[in-house]
Automatic annotation (TrEMBL):
Protein name: Lysine histidine transporter-like 8
Naturally occurring in which organism (per UniProt): Vitis vinifera
Lineage of source species: Eukaryota, Viridiplantae, Streptophyta, Embryophyta, Tracheophyta
Gene Ontology annotations of biological process type: amino acid transport
GO CC terms: membrane
Amino acid transporter transmembrane domain segment(s): 6-145, 173-301
The keyword Transmembrane helix belongs to this UniProt entry's keyword annotation: yes
Length: 312
């Protein structure tokens, strides 16, 4: 649930900020209104749109939304790398990494980078939950279409960071379209990453009350979740500076929890090869998570961070 909630907070920050950028690009800011919405208000506009769309009941019902999100993701990633290749390198910009003055600092920088990568792929575990909703048999296993579905977006997404270097040299139409596609993708992704939390809360209600969750309660749960994430986004707008640290906390979900869950469900014989492998992998994953967290804290202390609560 903390992975789901944290991802939705990050999506609100990204989606709201992109809405603001889209407004400034298309409308020209003060040219349309002398008092444009604040960043917090853009977060709220994005959250309202996401909450309305979150009323779809389950993963199967948001298949169309997911498809739209995937198409827009591939589209804006393609636009970004095409613009980057067409514009070339920006003059006066150094592409050399900034190295730390000490050996331990350089090591911690590398570990912090691993945490940032882990944060970037924090939600990929939900692929397993999506795959579980697909029909599967021996002749037509579900992992085949799932693999095809995620291959292209994953390959294209790694180039998205190039966008920021060409903001002043690119057509406003392209910048506006790219921002619009990012907004649509973020709203679509909110539904996918929020669904595990919705399902968990509603299933607990069903198990306790022995009856389906009523529609009004489902709507209330999803609205409270969405606006709770909005509150966190406004309260902690500097969360992007903590990506390495958050990635360190997210690592066990991929590298440790699956091994421990397998041990708990399968209960292999103690000291058997599968028992040793899973305990070794799970323990190593937890150890790597601790090391990345320590490295990220060191980098934060070394470089400093500007904290601004409730001031996005």
């Amino acid at each position: 649930m903390y992975l789901s909630g944290g991802t939705c907070v990050a999506l609100i920050i990204m989606g709201g900020s992109t809405m603001k950028q889209f407004y400034l690009t298309v409308c020209g800011g003060a040219a349309c209104s002398p008092n444009p919405p604040t960043t917090a208000e853009w977060y709220l506009i994005f959250t309202c749109a996401a909450v309305v769309l979150s009323q779809l009941p389950n993963l199967n019902s948001i298949a169309g939304v997911s498809l739209i999100g995937a198409i827009t993701a591939v589209t804006y990633c393609t636009m970004i790398w095409i613009v980057s290749v067409a514009e070339g390198r920006v003059s006066g910009v150094s592409y050399n990494p900034v190295s730390s003055s000490s050996e331990i600092g350089r090591i911690f920088d590398v570990l912090n980078a691993l945490g940032i990568i882990a944060f970037a792929f924090r939600g990929h575990n939900l692929i397993l939950e999506i795959q579980a909703t697909m029909p599967s048999d021996e002749k037509h296993p579900s992992h085949v279409p799932m693999w095809k579905g995620v291959k292209i977006p994953s390959d294209g997404g790694v180039l998205a960071a190039l966008f920021q270097y060409h903001g002043q040299d690119t057509s406003q139409v392209i910048l506006g379209l790219t921002s619009l596609f990012v907004i649509i993708n973020a709203i679509s992704a909110f539904q996918i990453y929020g669904m595990p939390t919705f399902d968990d809360i509603e299933s607990k209600y069903t198990m306790r009350k022995k009856k389906p969750c009523p529609k009004w309660l489902r709507a209330l749960i999803r609205a409270l979740f969405g606006f709770g994430c909005y509150l966190m986004a406004v309260a902690l707008p500097f969360v992007s500076k903590l990506t390495g640290l958050l990635g360190g906390f997210a690592l066990p979900i991929t590298l440790a929890y699956p091994c421990f869950l397998w041990l708990k469900t399968k209960k292999p014989k103690m000291y058997s090869p599968s028992w040793l492998i899973n305990w070794g992998l799970g323990t190593s994953g937890m150890g790597l998570s601790v090391i990345v967290i320590v490295a990220s804290i060191y980098v934060l202390i070394d470089t400093g961070i500007h904290v601004s609560f409730f001031n996005p």
